[in-house]
Amino acid sequence: MFGDSKKPKTGGAKVDTIIGQQTRIEGDIHFTGGLLVDGMIKGNLIAEAGSESVLTVSEHGKIEGDVRVPTIILNGTVTGDVRSDDRVELAARAEVNGDVYYNLIEMAMGAAVNGSLVHQTDKKTSVLSFERDTTETGGGTE
Question: For 116-134, what is the mean pLDDT?
Fold first, then answer.
């Protein structure tokens, strides 16, 4: 009624950073807080481990690389694996060309995953930290 229909839907998540539709970024992005992607990213997106960061990718957004975030709201395209400790929301125009690792998932009619869906509930084996993934040898409890 007041022009709200043109605003990107972020699921109520606070947006701290916006990558605009005419923007192309090459390289890895490390972030905390809310990140809205309307443009193109060639690189990995990594949220700080232990944060409550939210990545929102609009229907115009494209990511070529792996995504490691607690929560992702996807309505665009990701070519790479998506790893989430918390929640994955795949809207009607979402497309993932890679595997999706999730705790909770919501998938709308029309969304596509060209890869595996892997349910993970153990938060001790955090999917968010690249550094720990290469050095951990055990998986024992502390």
Answer: 63
| High-pLDDT (> 90) share of the chain, % | 71
E-strand ranges in 1-142 read 17-19, 24-26, 29-31, 34-37, 40-42, 45-47, 54-57, 62-64, 67-74, 77-79, 82-90, 95-97, 100-102, 104-107, 112-113, 117-119
Tokens of 131: 């550094």
- What is this structure's pTM? 0.78
Highest mean pLDDT (candidates 6-10, 11-15, 23-27)? 23-27
The DSSP bridge pattern shows strands 45-47 and 62-64 to be unpaired
Which burial class, exposed, middle or buried, applies to 109 when counting CB atoms under 10 A from its CB (0-12, 13-18, 19+)? exposed
Neighbours of 17 (CB within 10 A): 12
Measured distance CA(50)–CA(44) in Å, rounded: 18
Classify residue 5 by its DSSP letter. G
DSSP assignment of 45-63, as one string? EEEPTT---EEEE-TT-EE
| Six-digit token string for 22 | 């005419």
